[in-house]
Structures are given as C-alpha cells and as structure tokens.
Amino acid sequence: MFLQEEGYHFQAVKAVVRKFVMIVLNQKEEAVEISAIISDIMGVLLLKDPGWQKDVYWEKRLGLPRGALFSALFEAETDQAAILGHISHCEVFRRACQTLQLTEDALNDFEQALWEERLFNQELAVFLRQLRPRYKTALLSNAWSDARHNIERLFQLHTFVDLQIFSAEEGLAKPDLRLYRLALSRLEVQPAEVIFIDDREENILAAQQIGMRTILFEQNKQAIAALQGLLTI
User: Fold this and answer.
1) E strand spans, 160-224
2) What domains appear along the chain, each with residue ranges and CATH number?
3) Considering just the CA atoms, what is the radius of gyration of the chain in Å?
4) What element of type H or E holds 136?
5) Which carries the bigger pLDDT value, residue 11 or residue 215?
6) Nearest 10 degrees: CA dihedral of 38, 154, 112, 123?
7) Less packed terminus of the chain by CB within 10 Å, N or C?
8) CA atoms of 96 and 171, how far apart (whole Å)
9) Nearest to 206 by CA among 228, 229, 174
10) Tens digits of residue pLDDT in 179-188
C-alpha cells in the first residue's frame, strides 16, 4: 500500500512539474515578439494573370508548336542554373533561341511579355508597407538575374519593403536554409521574431525548420487575416 501511495505521489509531482515546464516554455515563446515579415514575390505579391495567353500569340507569330516557348525557356536544368545565378537571364534566352532556331531579337518582346503577365498584388503590398516602421519587411525570391531591375521598374516593390533578396544575386535558392539565414542576418533578427509568407509548401517547411512562424499564401483575405492574428493588430 505504501509503495502504491508513493508511486501515486511521484506521478502527481511529475505531472505538476511537467505542467510548470510547459507554462514556462509557453511564456518564453509568447515573450518573443514579432519584429519582421519576410514575403515571397512570385505567386504572392506578383500573381499570374489566369487569362494571359501571349505565349500562344508568340508561338503562332514565330511558327512554333504549342508549348515550345516555355519548354525551351524553363527547361529544368537551365532554369535552376538561372535561379542560382550560375547563368544570366540573357544566357537563358540565348539557349532558347538556339533550341528554337530563332534570332535573339525575336524573343525580346516576348521577354517583356513574360513580366507584363504578372498582376501586382497591391492590396497585400500596401498592407506590408503599412506595417513599417514598426516591423521590418523583406522580400525573398527565387528569381533570375533580371528580377530586381524588372520588379523595381514595373512594380516599384522596393518602395514597399526595407530589403529585397534575390536568389540569383546570392547563389542560393529556397528552400536552402542558408538563404533564410542570410535574410535573418541582414534584417538582424532571430527566426522566432519572423513571419514568413510563401505560396510553396517546401519553402514554408524550410522556414519552419529554422524556427520562423509561417503563412502558406492562398489568397489575400486568408493571408492578411493570418498576419493580423500573429501580429495582434
């Protein structure tokens, strides 16, 4: 009987200790305030126009079969090399011209059309801008070497945030944890202080792995509500 009672008291004490530890841990997590928001660009702040069909127009104009342009431009190995900055966007188009047997001038207008297909997500961009200066804001994008120039020229996204980081300029791409750590270092924040927004699950999982809070972007209403909940605004 004594042994049973001793065992009971031990379990009771153990439960109390466990509860105390959880309270301390939760308080510690709650004590870490959000100080920065990092967002993806493509698929979040720049959305694809569902009605865009200029590729079809250009394929007809250039006498190419359906799908040939995108297959040549976004061939997996070449695309990844461009994302990592191993080759320039000019080299991507040069290779596509060779594959499609076209002159480089023939694809210049199509290159611009690729950027013009993007719809600027002004609602979310304005929301992020309104969080400044209370919160630091940054963009983290897997993109070719021409991304910064075109994004600033066409959409002025640099005026909405404090920092832009592009994979081709760093030689690293999401979901490589080193790129996330680079962003943290430049913002001078810890992972637990950050909310990360992206439309790709693999990038979200990587951010969670290093301790960021995350939002998988689906639409503005959902993302803004999630942000407001985490920021308590």
Assistant:
1) 163-166, 194-198, 213-216
2) 33-48+120-231 (3.40.50.1000), 54-116 (no CATH)
3) 24
4) strand 136-141
5) 215
6) 60
7) N
8) 22
9) 174
10) 999 999 999 9
What is the token pair recorded at 184? 């943290």
Distance, CA of 108 to CA of 113 (rounded, Å):
9
Predicted model pTM: 0.83
Could you tell me the pLDDT band of residue 6, with boundaries at 50, 70 and 90?
A: very low
Assess contact for 44 and 174: CB atoms under 8 A.
no
Contact 198, 174 (CB under 8 A): yes
- Cα angle 68-171-195, degrees, rounded to a multiple of 5: 95
Instruction: Please give the Cα distance from 103 to 58 (Å, whole number).
Output: 14
Closest CA to 162 of 189, 143, 181: 189
pLDDT tier at 54, thresholds 50, 70, 90 = confident
Q: Which of 8-17, 88-97, 114-123, 134-143 has the lowest mean pLDDT?
A: 8-17
Q: State the sign of the Cα–Cα–Cα–Cα dihedral 139, 75, 48, 218.
A: negative
Q: Which residues of 28-53 are buried (b: 16+ CB within 10 A; e: fewer)?
A: eeeeeebbbbbbbbbebbbbeeeeee
Cβ-contact 224, 212 below 8 angstroms: no
